[in-house]
Design brief:
74% helix, 0% strand, mainly alpha, Serine Threonine Protein Phosphatase 5, Tetratricopeptide repeat, elongated
């Protein structure tokens, strides 16, 4: 019977030669060292199997085959290894070491039926060797038989209740099959043998998390933190769990203790600041971060992380005045610390731009372009802010540098041209605006540029050039209401092409019906056409829409009343126009 079985396995060996290579086999022929079980083991099993006596010649030959087989495995010549191990088995089938090596070989070759057979044989021959039990469990796991693996390991744990190697594998296997409660029990037992261990406590935490048992998870992490107070992973995990559970005080204690103990993790400090903020303790959060920013021993990267964190908090709640003030104070401290750092200045400028505080952003943009002149975005922002704040002299002052560092930028050229125009330097205004028209840009923006260029030519009494510019603006964007209105108004003032002016004014009003300037233009065109009632209606609407602070609109209303024969009202409106603009001395004659 035994001979038939041996022949069968020999045939299988040769059939499996084409399978994947086997990993290093563990064991020796006698495996004598494995028999020395722990003194703490409960009931060391004894084999009841009757081992035959082998001749010295068979033992010597089997040993030679075994060594050759193991050597072949180490050299990754797996086919030859199986041949030698099988020959050793034929000579000494009741040797536990040979059976163990064959079990390992068949397992790697994924012949789990044979692997289980030989592993069980090894256990039957030498049940006191824990590694044989572990190997059988491993085979079952690889074959997808998790339940059988757990049974093997539980049985072995009964034999070796305090064997740490075995218990760790059992705990991991239980976790793998989803028995988290039993896995935690095994881990707790291991630590009664070894004492508390961070890795085991981490495994217990993971089991508790999978078992939806946050209390046990927190206890495990708290014990782990007692062992390694500077372990950033434990600190962050424990603090995060407290936050998830809504225990802000618990999280605060963890993070504050970590910082007091000298943990320099940026992530943990950000978490601490976040807890302060969640508790509404903006002053403390700001003071804490400001201290870090001002500390010369803290790296710039950490400071930048904290700064970005505060800015992100502000973006989430921009209406929070205390948060806004706190963030601004931290920004200022950071910039003072790194006054000669262009990136720091740019970051501060961006923050104040988000706050819509142009006056605070401008100095930082000025420093940014000084320190980082290649920063084209900073030049664009600075020129636009100068324009928005009517700082035309300052804008003109940087225009040449801006053009050099950000060449052919249509926005910089446009704002510079407008600044010259506002200073009534029409010659330079035309130069810069013409340059802007020659720069590639979107059609709607180029339409605006051409429209302003038309206004500039008109201001310089270059009407033919103004007409050309207005026509270009309207061709590029037929809905450019400003160009339509201004072109129409200056046509009406010159009393030429009144019908064309009327059509353009009507289009402008249709686009922005509540624009006081557009209503006045349309009213004035009606005035030029002799329709004084219509002129009165539109100019009245212009005044109602805010035009009562425009000397031109007030004067137009006086002119309309004059044509309507109401001299008293005409004088009232002319007087208001003169009070608004004392340069209109010609109104004195009318009055």
């Amino acid at each position: 019977m035994s001979g038939t079985r041996d022949n069968l396995h020999i045939k299988r060996v040769f059939m499996l030669r084409y399978f994947l290579p086997l990993v290093l086999v563990i064991g020796t022929l006698a495996c004598s060292s494995s028999r020395n079980a722990s003194r703490d083991n409960a009931a060391i099993p004894v084999s009841t199997r009757e081992i035959p006596e082998y001749s010295a010649e068979d033992l010597a030959q089997a040993k030679a085959y075994y060594i050759e087989g193991i050597t072949a495995f180490e050299m990754q010549d797996f086919n030859e290894a199986l041949d030698h191990l099988t020959m050793a088995y034929i000579l000494v089938p009741d040797d536990a070491g040979v059976n163990f090596a064959l079990a390992d070989a068949y397992m790697v070759l994924m012949d789990y039926t044979n692997a289980v057979f030989y592993a069980q044989e090894a256990i039957d021959i030498e049940p006191s060797n824990k590694w044989y039990h572990i190997k059988l469990a491993e085979i079952f796991l690889r074959d997808g038989q998790s339940g059988s693996a757990v049974e093997v390991l539980e049985t072995a744990a009964g034999y070796f209740p305090n064997d740490v190697d075995l218990l760790v594998i059992l705990a991991g296997t239980l976790s793998e099959v989803g028995d988290y409660t039993r896995s935690i029990e095994v881990l707790e037992h291991i630590m009664t043998v070894t004492g508390p261990d961070v890795q085991l406590l981490f495994q217990m935490y993971r089991n508790a998390t999978m078992n939806d048992d946050p209390e046990t998870g927190i206890q495990a992490l708290e014990q782990a933190l007692e062992l390694e107070r500077d372990n950033e992973q434990i600190i962050q995990l424990l603090g995060s769990i407290y936050l998830e559970e809504g225990d802000l005080d618990g999280a605060l204690a963890v993070f504050e203790t970590a910082v007091e103990n000298g943990v320099e993790s940026g992530e943990i400090k950000v978490s601490l600041a976040d807890v302060y903020i969640q508790q509404g303790r903006w002053d403390e959060a700001a003071r804490f971060i400001r201290e870090i920013v001002e500390d010369p021993l803290v790296g710039e990267q950490l400071k930048n992380e904290l700064l970005q964190f505060m800015i992100s908090q502000y973006m989430r709640d921009p209406s929070n005045e205390l948060l806004s003030e706190s963030t601004a104070s931290i920004i200022d401290a950071y910039v003072q610390t790194y006054a000669e750092n262009g990136e720091a200045q740019a970051l501060a400028a961006d923050f104040y731009l988000m706050m819509r505080n142009n006056q605070a952003a401008i100095p930082h943009l000025e420093e940014t372009v000084r320190l980082m002149p290649e920063n084209q975005a900073a030049w664009q922002q600075l020129t636009q802010l100068y324009y928005n704040e009517s700082m035309f002299d300052e804008l003109i002052g940087i225009s040449e540098d801006a053009e050099y560092w950000s060449p052919e930028d249509p926005f910089i050229r446009f704002f510079t041209g407008v600044a010259y125009s506002m200073n009534e330097d029409h010659e330079n205004a035309v130069i810069w605006l013409t340059m802007a028209t020659e720069t590639p840009a979107r059609a709607d923006f180029k339409s605006v540029v051409w429209g302003v260029l038309g206004d500039t030519h008109q201001g310089a009494d270059n009407w033919p050039q103004a007409v050309e510019a207005y026509e270009q603006a309207i061709d590029l964007d037929p809905d450019n209401s400003t160009a339509l209105n201004n072109y129409a108004y200056f046509m009406s003032v010159r009393n030429e092409n009144i019908e064309q002016a009327y059509e353009m004014a009507m289009r402008a009003v249709a686009i922005e019906p509540e624009n006081a300037s557009y209503q006045d233009t349309l009213g004035w065109i009606y005035f030029q056409k002799g329709n004084y009632q219509k002129a009165y209606e539109h100019i009245s609407e212009a005044i109602q829409n805010g035009g009562d602070n425009s000397a031109t609109i007030l004067e137009h209303m006086g002119d309309v009343y004059d044509k309507l024969g109401n001299q008293e009202s005409a004088r009232i409106w002319w007087q208001r126009a003169l009070e608004q603009d004392e340069a209109r001395e010609y109104l004195l004659e009318r009055l």
